[in-house]
Amino acid sequence: SSPDTGVYKVMLLGDSGVGKSTLAGIFGGVEDTFPHGSEHPEDTYERNLLVDGEKTTLIVYDIWEEAGSQSWMQDSCLQMGDAFLLIFSVTDRSTFQRLPSLLLQLRTARPHRHIPIILVGNKGDLVRSREVNMEEGRSLAGMLNCKYTEISAALHHNTHELLEGVVRQIRLRKDEG
Ligand code: GDP
Ligand code: MG
Predict the structure, then answer these.
(1) Cα(138) to centroid(ligand 2), Å
(2) Distance (Å, rounded) from C-alpha 25 to C-alpha 37?
(3) Does ipTM come in above 0.95?
């Protein structure tokens, strides 16, 4: 594996509309990404953070949709990441149902690597339009051998914890080799 420089690439995956760009903006420390969003959002954000007393730089990539359905571009996204967030919206079951095939594509692209993969249910604030409950999310993650978390990018709920969790997962996997 590549030498540990303390700079890690985090790739945001998931269907259109699940909240990838909103979350990327929050991770990048951009204020006011909600509710109006930016006319021209960035697709890459660099963020320095101190987690458990150690400095880390995360580069967050929101480029999955730019790859469209071009498999070579999708593959280059999957080859690049040191960690992956598979994001769905708890208000849209179809985005949840896409996760197993997305994960299969990722594991096929990176078969011999221990990479942190976290399933992320976004839009937890939209209580009344929820279509996927937390137990279903947990249970799918368990079956797929991934971590699971729910967030609200709109309310910044659990987003900082997720960011720190990603860093800890990456460090853990690096130590395991
Ligand atoms: P992307 O297509 O995956 O990049 O999704 P966006 O970040 O563009 O978000 C799609 C829409 O969902 C936008 O209107 C966002 O403002 C909205 N959105 C994103 N996250 C949340 C959230 O946690 N709660 C709510 N209520 N809306 C959200
Ligand atoms: Mg987007």
Answers:
(1) 25
(2) 9
(3) yes
